[in-house]
From TrEMBL:
Compartment list: Membrane
Transmembrane regions: 220-241, 261-282
UniProt keywords, alphabetically: Glycosyltransferase, Membrane, Transferase, Transmembrane, Transmembrane helix
Record carries keyword Membrane: yes
Entry GO CC: membrane
Upper classification of the organism: Archaea, Methanobacteriati, Methanobacteriota, Stenosarchaea group, Halobacteria
Chief place where the protein resides: membrane
Membrane topology term: Multi-pass membrane protein
Name of the protein in its database record: Glycosyl transferase family 21
GO molecular function, one term: glycosyltransferase activity
Pathway assignment: Sphingolipid metabolism; Lipid metabolism; sphingolipid metabolism
Domain of life where this protein originates: Archaea
Organism field: Natronobacterium texcoconense
Amino acid sequence: MADYVPTSVVLPTTGWNGACAEVVAQLREEDELLVVCDDENEAVADRVADVSNARLVVAGDPEGCSGKANAVAAGMEAAEHDRIAWSDDDYHHPPDWLEGLRQDYEEHGPVSETPVFVGQDPLGAFLEPTQALSGTLMVYVADIPWGGAVMFERDDLGDEDAFLEELRRTVSDDGLLSEYVDVTTLGRTRRVEIGGSARESLENQVRFTQIVRNHDVRGIALMTGIATVLTAVAVLFPLPMLALTTLSMAAIYAAFGIRRWTFLTAYPVLLASVPLTLYGLARHTFVWGGRRYRWEDKFDVTVVSE
């Protein structure tokens, strides 16, 4: 058995919540939890002070990057250990979450879990098949890291200083990580609730599209081309394509343990896929975490408003 390697868990959050408590319960004595906030939060500071191996990290307001990227960079700089785990605060961390990542790292090297995004409003629910394809299936098949549950070591980055410098100039933490670290993405999934209103779901659509545009230009071109062809076929042969897309999406849902009725929207979502992609490409501003960002290029980010 490999020697135990202590882990620094970086957890950006706006306040102490259930996810923080879940991670704390999984820490070994040598591990640490970095709870990262934009500014000094007295309530969070009081809770962190009660945990011997947890610390509050104040990242400050982002300048030229997203709040998430800024928080992750601050957490990594404050972390004491070489082995790093990133986590989000918007999903349930079962008791074996951290130990599972640790064991998987010993077997595979850098590893990531797979998200399942669940819409919390009618539009978000309607669009779930697009998330199942791009946010779940493709993340798993292409070994794309998900910043909500990933473990790696500093040496895996190659040039950590360059990574952190670029992280403070971009939006997507996991998009950039994919360019520095080769990960094994596990089939183990985590349910992440997104949206809440039609506007939030549209903003998420723009952000996700812009992530692909800025980190995989050929990928977005290929996706748009395939979607265009499939849409044309769906219009020409509606009944066969209705059956094919619905059954195919049901199979994807089953493969990842997604128990949602929303696979039934696969066909109309296919018809809307090209307009949605073009909408996401045309808009370079979007709201994320209470801030509006203008993302013109991978390293050209402006915080427009809060």
